[in-house]
Amino acid sequence: MNNDFQKNSRSLYRAKRRKTNLILNSLIVIVLTLIIIVAYNIFATGNDEKATTQEASPKTEHKTATNNKEKKEETEEKKDEKVEESSKEEDANLEEEQEEEASASEQADESQAVITEGGSNSNVIRTIVNPSWKPVGTTQTGEHTVVYDKSSVDWQEMLNAISYATGLDQSNMTVYWLGRDRTTANSSIGTVASKDKSLKYKVYITWVDNEGWMPTKVEEIAEIQR
């Protein structure tokens, strides 16, 4: 009986030991599996981050290059604007200087004018002749033929000469007659007045080859006559 009891005790002990070993081995396998999973995740995540960084790097470099290019273009645009503004200021100053010189020249011309009371008929109040008058310039070339057409270059250049001689701006000038001076070759006569008719003139002009129309005499008149 004692032998049977001892046998049963040994069998129970061995069974418990096998069960314990099985549990320990299972736990070891589980722990190793967890270690492998964690290690895999760590390495895999690290590689993904590295790949993401490597992929993002060219984008970042491209963005930086684009920003630098935009800044450079903006700087160049500002530089061009400054140059353009400076050029405009220089042009404005030059134009102002030219206007001042022209004004001084006109004053000097007026001071040289010879003014005579009366004139060729009773309608003339006074006659003005200025030896410093010059041709007003022309865009016409070759042999010149006078064209009395309001749309022609010749007509506009004749008005320029009349405006120059009388001091009337063309925007404040009414042309009553402009035609041939039959007493002198290559010459014309214009009758003009200011818009309010406070100033009325009969202007004699002559053509100078390659230089344009030049005033020769201005008569201030009392009434508009051809």
UniProtKB/TrEMBL annotation:
Q: Per its UniProt record, what Pfam families does this chain match? A: DUF1510 (PF07423)
- For whether the record's keyword set contains Hydrolase, the answer is no
Membrane-crossing segments per the record = 21-43
Residue ranges, compositional bias (Acidic residues): 92-109
Q: Which residues form the DUF1510 domain?
A: 128-220
Keywords (alphabetical) are: Membrane, Transmembrane, Transmembrane helix
InterPro entries the record matches: DUF1510
Q: Where is the composition biased (Basic and acidic residues)?
A: 49-91
**For the region Disordered, what residue ranges are annotated?**
49-119
Name of the featured protein: DUF1510 family protein
Originating species: Neobacillus thermocopriae
